[in-house]
Task: inverse folding
């Protein structure tokens, strides 16, 4: 198991640094492009949600990203000390309704739920911890892609 | 990095192309211009996304906001060249049920022009 732990501040400008570190880590670990893409998507949706909605005091806050690979997939943990937000129970309006509204609110949660195999939330010590698991894409076995 | 290229603005159909990443950072660089080149023109618009490498919910929201605005003016947005991871992301949220996807520009033009007939 390999681990990436990264702390960023609650600024959108930090997303680039996070993105580069995550991409390099997944590449170094030999994670397939398909799985890596879904991991990047989930991480970005989770972290952007924290940056945009978790804080309203205008102060700097730390967001911890922990990513771990295993033979079956990639485990993601995002921790912040912002407002309570549980994406496992957050309202996600029907996708068609969201899209027709022309707004993206709730779309990120919907994407995360669709892309992850597991999504868990806990709040302890006034911190949100969201854990998501992205399973490896199934590769065609011998004889299946003839 | 995101690029918005205007390929043509005909009298009835606009044709633009998005290249690169459409995420929380790049959205701020492109959304006002994208709206200006699509929804604000009130004409059906073909959006070539064949060179779009990454899209998040905020980027999808931009596309749907403009598509909705165009519909109010009896115009449509048609996506062309959707493939790979971007296509997966769009289909994951059911985008194809709301915005027409076309395999090529000719099909996209037909869909765009039929919307006005």
Result:
């Amino acid at each position: 198991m390999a681990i990436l732990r990264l702390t960023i501040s609650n600024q959108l400008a930090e997303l680039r640094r996070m993105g580069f570190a995550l991409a390099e880590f997944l590449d170094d670990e030999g994670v397939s492009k398909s799985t890596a893409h879904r991991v990047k998507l989930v991480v970005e949706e989770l972290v952007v949600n924290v940056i945009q909605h978790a804080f309203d005091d205008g102060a700097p806050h730390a967001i911890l990203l922990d990513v771990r690979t295993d033979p079956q997939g990639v485990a993601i943990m995002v921790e912040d000390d912002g407002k309570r937000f549980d994406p496992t129970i957050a309202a996600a309006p029907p996708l068609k309704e969201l899209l027709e509204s022309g707004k993206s609110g709730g779309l990120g949660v919907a994407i995360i739920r669709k892309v992850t195999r597991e999504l868990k939330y806990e709040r302890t010590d006034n911190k949100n911890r969201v854990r998501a698991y992205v399973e490896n894409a199934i590769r065609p076995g011998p004889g299946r892609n003839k | 990095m995101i690029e918005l290229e205007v390929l043509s603005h005909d009298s009835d159909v606009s044709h633009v192309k998005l290249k690169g990443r459409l995420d929380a950072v790049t959205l701020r660089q492109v959304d006002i211009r994208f709206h200006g080149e699509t929804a604000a023109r009130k004409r059906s618009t073909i959006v070539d996304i064949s060179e779009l490498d990454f899209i998040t919910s905020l980027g999808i929201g931009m596309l749907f906001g403009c598509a909705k605005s165009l519909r109010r003016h009896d115009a449509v947005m048609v996506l062309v060249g959707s493939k790979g991871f971007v296509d997966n992301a769009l289909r994951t949220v059911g985008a194809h049920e709301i915005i027409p996807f076309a395999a090529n520009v000719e099909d996209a033009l037909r869909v765009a022009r039929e919307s006005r007939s």
Chain A has four helices and five strands. Chain A touches chain B through 30 residues (CB under 8 Å). Strands of chain A lie at 2-9, 62-70, 73-80, 118-124, 127-135. The helical segments of chain A are 14-28, 33-53, 95-101, 107-115.
